[in-house]
Amino acid sequence: MIEQLAVAVLGANGRMGAEAVKAVEAAADLKLVAALGRKDSLDALVDAGARIVVDLTVPGSTEANVRFAVEHGMHAVVGTTGWDAGRLGRLEELLAGQSGVGVLIAPNFALGSVLASAFAAKASRYFESVEIIELHHPEKVDAPSGTAVRTAQLISAERQAAGLPASPDATTSGRPGARGCDVDGVRVHSVRLRGLVAHQEVLLGGPGEQLTLRHDSFDRASFMPGVLLGVRNIASHPGLTVGLDGYLDLGL
Ligand SMILES: NC(=O)c1ccc[n+]([C@@H]2O[C@H](COP(=O)([O-])OP(=O)(O)OC[C@H]3O[C@@H](n4cnc5c(N)ncnc54)[C@H](OP(=O)(O)O)[C@@H]3O)[C@@H](O)[C@H]2O)c1
């Protein structure tokens, strides 16, 4: 008989949470022990014997939820946005006193997206120019997307390590926004269009050639293999991990 991991989902009535509930229920090696919404007490996690908490809630709730989980010795797999440097710093302090407990903060659970960002960063040291275009549905409230910011940061770190200069750009005049925004020296352009879900292109340019790395999420189901990968591997990753790439053997 398979020993099942006891998993709880927070934000279970939300769009992502409902998908996660279905994904956990469908996995033979996982057991859904709690599916909580905003009005439920976190004490239910303890009562249900949860070992791993999946947080897919809202930026205003996620820090308290994760804190509760860690303080009670539970691992947390987190997809909720809003984890800025201050929150991450406080979480690291908390985790320092809870040996063996792991937290994964994953700005993007889509495996293809995580891989595309990692490939783009690695490729960017071999090209003179790099720019990012992210394209999303018009209900999205933040721009650029968290994934685009993270991709730009990975690219920037890779190029700095290789001693590369900034991408060439002779622009001296233009309308505000025409060149997108600057994230750690990488230009990011945000498109909001009815009909889209979540898409990103990294354009890499060299003399006479272009490499485009594109990823498309067509449905929230695209995030679930990454959520399950996080749940299955978190016990062997104590401490804080930011980004699902930390759980993938990319060999880059
Ligand atoms: N990492 C990724 O790959 C990824 C992908 C997509 C989205 N996201 C992020 O995931 C989060 C959820 O997205 P979504 O589209 O599912 O949002 P959503 O549909 O608004 O769902 C959020 C849910 O969380 C519930 N909630 C709020 N506070 C809670 C608490 N303290 N305990 C339990 N549940 C609570 C809300 O309940 P009420 O309805 O009662 O307010 C709502 O049902 C967002 O931050 C989003 O940006 C991440």
SSE blueprint:
Layout: E1 5-10, H1 15-26, E2 30-36, H2 43-48, E3 52-55, H3 59-71, E4 75-78, H4 85-96, E5 102-105, H5 111-123, E6 129-136, H6 146-161, E7 181-183, E8 186-192, E9 198-206, E10 209-217, H7 224-233, E11 239-242
Parallel strand pairs: 1-2, 1-3, 3-4, 4-5, 5-11, 6-8
Antiparallel strand pairs: 6-9, 7-8, 9-10
Bound molecules: NADP nicotinamide-adenine-dinucleotide phosphate (NAP).
Structure overview:
The protein is α/β, with parallel strands linked by helices. It has 2 domains: 5-105 and 221-247, NAD(P)-binding Rossmann-like Domain (Rossmann fold, 3-Layer(aba) Sandwich), CATH 3.40.50.720; 111-218, Dihydrodipicolinate Reductase, domain 2, CATH 3.30.360.10. It is built from 7 helices and 11 strands. The strands form 2 sheets. A 6-stranded parallel sheet has the order 2-1-3-4-5-11, with helices on both faces. A 5-stranded mixed sheet has the order 7-8-6-9-10. The chain is elongated and about 60 Å long. The model has no long low-confidence stretch (mean pLDDT 96). Residues 10-11, 13-17, 36-38, 56-59, 61, 65, 79-81, 106-109, 223 line the site of NADP nicotinamide-adenine-dinucleotide phosphate.
Quick overview:
The chain is an alpha/beta fold and 252 residues long. It contains 7 helices and 11 strands. It folds into 2 domains: 5-105 and 221-247, Rossmann fold; 111-218, Dihydrodipicolinate Reductase, domain 2 (2-Layer Sandwich), CATH 3.30.360.
